[in-house]
Design a protein that fits this description.
Blueprint (H helix, E strand, L loop, with lengths): L3 E10 L4 E10 L7 E3 L3 E3 L5 E3 L7 E3 L7
Antiparallel strand pairs: 1-2, 3-6, 4-5
Length: 68
């Protein structure tokens, strides 16, 4: 069976004061089974949330649940 997932992200650009859209599609060949995304953000010493765009999309292998 051929499966394709479509993702639409909507955001707001404060600099240009406009809504931004990003569309992406993924097929089963691009799926990663048994993986978990890493958090691409952290809180710095001042308590601010900091996003590291280089980490977006990184993942680690995660155990799949078994039917025991």
């Amino acid at each position: 069976m051929d499966v394709e997932i479509f993702v639409l992200l909507k955001g707001y650009d404060d600099v240009f004061a406009q809504t931004i859209y990003s569309r992406q599609s993924y097929t089963t060949a691009q799926f990663v089974y048994g993986a978990k995304f890493r958090r691409p953000f952290a809180v710095n010493n001042e308590g601010q949330l900091v996003m590291d765009l280089k980490k977006v999309g990184e993942y680690d292998v995660a155990p799949l649940p078994t039917n025991a």
